[in-house]
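Worked Example 4.2. Read the sequence first, then its structure tokens.
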Amino acid sequence: MNTSKFLTNNEIWKEMGKLITSPRRVDAAIAYLGTGGANLLRLRKDDRLITDMSMATVRSGGTNPFEVEKFIRRGVRVFSRRSLHAKVIISGNSVISGSANISHHSKDVLDEAAIWTNDPAVLRRAAMFIERLCTEPVRLEYLEQCKISYRPPRLSGNQRITGEGQHRVKPTKLALSIWYLAAEFLNVKLIGMRRVWTKQKN
């Protein structure tokens, strides 16, 4: 049975943890990888990670090359993609796609959202997307250059930027079906068409 769920904040990391610990290979395209990212995303040998490790992003602190080095030491196959802004994780028959980068700032401070699904059509498209990104492996020589150029970001993981008196959105027990939403949309359209047809008839 095809299922889809809308996730927020801690729910995202809980579902992500289930994907990472599955026995199947994990493919992750995560635009930015912050300090502590190697512990937040426990990828293993032969898993694949695509991240934006362009020199400009490294110098601005968007991706931490020291975290990338930890992945490489684990045997993770790491690729760089300068134009990457997506956040997609695939394992087995499940895919999560949303807004969250791999950082403590994303996990603990920001309001994030994502969709989890096991829809086969979505999985096929996501897998094709991942394959197209794996074109530029991170070589050790380039990694060393990035480590020299890296500058930590200005915002630390424990800083709150949501403003005084604001709080993160609390997780809700909300399961959304893509097919249900589509059916609701079509139902609204049909009601509108029926009203127009009735007016024309009268």
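Now turn to a second chain, presented in exactly the same format:
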Amino acid sequence: MLKAFTDDSGSDPKSKTRGPVFVMAGYLANTETWNNTSDEWQRVLDSPRKLDWFRSAGIQQLDKMPFKNWEKEDAELKASQLSVVIESAPITSFVLCMYWDDFKKAKQEFTSTADIEPYGMLFNGVMASVTDFIIKNRASETVQFEFDEQGKAGEEALSIYREVRGMLPRPNADLILGAPGFNDDKNVLPLQMADMLAWNIRRYISDNDGEFPRIENSVVWFNKPSKTLLKVVKKETLWSVYNYSSLREMFSKFEYFRSGKLSPEDIRKELESERP
């Protein structure tokens, strides 16, 4: 069985070009790999100087936990040491991004999508892209999805997932083990790793005037990336950038589904027929 751990980095108020950016990212690995990687992550957390848990944004907020009363240099050193754990781990990373401006523009064209928010769109996108990857690369292994706790946003995303699960191509739906779970990243170490990836991707976009990295044939090209970013983005990474055109198509299919003109089964068959 595989497990996918996912965190989001919210919007970026510093983006200067097309409005705030939303990033959702995480890692995929089998249970044994997660156990070994979590043990190593905990070892680094416990090594001098001990840190109770890790959260990337904490380095910018040294008056709050988990880095309360730390010097910035010490906090950055701890983050660098933890990033080496990710760099050494045999795991796959995945990154989904969208501009909120594109999302709002596409959403306002449809009348039955008022309850859909960026988090819910990317939440379901993670499951679609990861299961597509498994089908292409790992055949029949099932996957369990774990997300960082999101309160109401998570409940709404899960509600939409339950609504659209019947639309998923059957090979994808059969791979998903149970319902997606939500956990506290203070207690689930792989969620802290996912946080490091999502935060550093969003930071990169902010530092580059709101521009996504260039992606060609699934290969990413960064412009002056940080050392940490290069460690946490794995060589094998699934990249998905939802632009206005792709978002509009998603909203269109969802509105058509909610209109009752097509059943989930009809849409599932249509999606399956579009596959090569």
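Notes for the reader: DSSP finds ten helices and eight strands in the chain. The chain has one domain: 2-273.
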